[in-house]
Design a protein that fits this description.
The complex is a heterodimer of chains A (about 100) and B (about 375). Helix content of chain A is about 25%, strand content about 20%. Chain A has three helices and five strands; from the N terminus they run βαβαββαβ. Chain A starts with a strand and ends in a 5-residue tail after the last strand. Chain B has about 375 residues and is mainly β. Chain B has one domain (about 35-330): YVTN repeat-like/Quinoprotein amine dehydrogenase (Methylamine Dehydrogenase, Chain H, 7 Propeller), CATH 2.130.10. Chain B contains no helices and 30 strands. In chain B, strand 24 and strand 25 form a beta hairpin. Classes of the chains: A alpha+beta (about 100), B mainly beta (about 375). Chains A and B meet through helix 1 of A and strand 6 of B.
Chain lengths: ~100, ~375
């Protein structure tokens, strides 16, 4: 079970708690996590990545095992700790603006 | 007993203010969508409990929310605004070609006749339409592709389609305005469009009388005279009496003809309101005195309305979508400021009072009058 930790605004948007759990068949990548997340919570479509290009929105970052993986390929395998649920996959709004 | 509902969009959420027809005591509900920018929310004239809200953030993009109970509860609807075909380019600030990129919805205009139909004006400028209550959006791409699109340029606030006026006598005729491209009109429900900027004179663009490129801030009309349009341009207050074919200036004795809002009295088609702002570099009232100006002659002759408005140390702005008019017999006028106040007049502008203050910066104000 993959654990995804959402920023505050996306929690209220999806009406969920801080963390959501997703069942994902390997490989566990940014893309498969976001596909599963958007399938379960359609209101998050367009809020994390572009509807059409599927590119990460500029002020959204992804962290796995305390490492910023935002610029990694969306199809790169994430660490086993993420796939097993030992560590959470963090979606973070960049600290910018007011 | 009549009820009035004022819908306020702010930098950090939406607020809904309600009062009975006396408009003396107000109840404030909100913030809805706390922390999000609410550029606009508006109700359907066909079903007043059907509201649409544009919710956006630089971080998490665009959401559209719909309420079917007058704003008590909200549901997400479709937020996919995809340009039709190859988006093409418009001019960037430096004159270079720049690809069209969707940024946000500035304005939602429900149909005057169909509860499920609604238009959206977006940045980068384009018009979208939904016929199923916001569940699906499709671009009315004839606007961007009619020919002048590559020459459009963003204003300081972005290249936004911010005004949508539907002719009450002919739903196929729609007027829109884009900053900084100008005003446009369709007479076939949005399939084809033409620029309607003849008579505008803008000294800040290379050709002051160009077909497009004018920074139109807002246009307004009275439902009984849809051929008469009033415009607050970047500078200049303008009027057209032929549905936008020709414009002439009506700034008259205004202390400054820069501003953002313009609106028309509910029952007097020649009574017009503006809020003069000092200049394009100083976005606040002259000498710190907040004043609405009213013309009862369709322009040129303006009177200041200051009773109840701050007359010292007031340095707020009033943004383009932040004025609205109710339709009670004694017409009410409302406007919101970047300082978070919403001022209301229950006597057509003769006197004012804040009906809420200290909200986040106000982006838009709409009012619904319910029997």
């Amino acid at each position: 079970m993959v654990r995804v930790i959402l920023p505050a605004h996306l929690r209220t948007l999806a009406a969920v708690d801080r963390q959501v759990e997703l069942e994902i068949t390997a490989p566990v990548t940014q893309r498969t996590i976001l596909d599963a997340l958007e399938a379960k919570y359609p209101m998050l479509r367009g809020a994390i990545r572009d509807h059409v290009t599927q590119q990460r929105r500029p002020l959204v970052r992804f962290f796995a095992c305390e490492k910023d993986v935002s610029h990694d390929s969306p199809d790169a395998a994430l660490p086993d700790e993420i796939a097993s649920g030992k560590e959470g996959f963090y979606i973070i709004g960049a600290i910018a603006g007011g | 007993m009549s009820e009035v509902r004022v819908l306020v969009g702010t930098r950090k959420g939406a607020f809904i203010l309600t009062s009975d027809g006396k408009r003396e005591r107000w109840t404030v509900a909100g913030p809805h969508f706390a922390g999000w920018e609410i550029y606009h929310l508006k109700g359907s004239p066909v079903n007043p409990d059907r509201l649409y809200a544009s919710q956006s953030s630089s971080w998490f993009g665009q959401q559209i929310r719909r309420s079917d109970d007058g704003g008590k509860t909200w549901q997400p609807v479709d937020n996919k605004f995809v340009y039709d075909g190859m988006p093409g380019t418009h001019q960037w600030y430096d004159g270079t070609a720049h690809p069209w990129e969707f940024k946000r919805v500035w304005h939602l205009e429900p149909s005057l006749t169909k509860a499920e139909a609604v238009y959206a004006g977006v940045e980068d400028a384009a018009m979208f339409h939904s016929t199923d209550g916001g569940q699906n959006w499709a671009e009315l791409s004839g606007l961007r592709s009619h020919g002048t699109g590559p020459n459009w340029q963003p204003g300081a606030g972005g290249m936004c389609l911010h005004t949508i006026l539907i002719d009450p006598t002919n739903p196929e005729r729609i007027f829109i305005a884009i900053s900084a491209a100008g005003a446009f009109r369709t007479t076939d429900g949005g399939k084809t469009w033409q620029p309607i900027n003849r008579g505008l004179h803008s000294l800040y663009i290379p050709n002051p009388t160009a077909e497009v490129g004018h920074c139109v801030h807002r246009i307004a009309l009275h439902r009984s005279k849809p051929d008469t349009l009033f415009m607050q341009k970047h500078w200049d207050v303008m009027r057209s009496d032929d549905g936008g074919d020709n414009w002439h200036e009506i700034s008259g004795n205004l202390p400054t003809d820069f501003g953002f809002v313009i609106d028309v009295h509910a029952h007097e088609p020649q009574t017009v309101y503006v809020v003069p702002i000092k200049s394009d570099s100083e976005h606040f009232p002259i000498d710190g005195k907040l004043s609405v100006y009213r013309s009862r002659t369709g322009g040129n002759e303006w009177e200041p309305l200051t009773n109840g408005l701050p007359q010292e140390n007031c340095y707020v702005n009033v943004l383009r979508d932040a004025m609205a008019i109710d339709t009670l017999d004694q017409c009410g006028v409302y406007f919101g400021t970047t300082g978070g106040q919403v001022y209301a007049s229950a006597d057509a502008g003769d006197s004012w009072k804040p009906i809420v203050r200290d909200l986040p910066a106000v982006l838009s104000v709409e009012v619904q009058t319910m029997a």
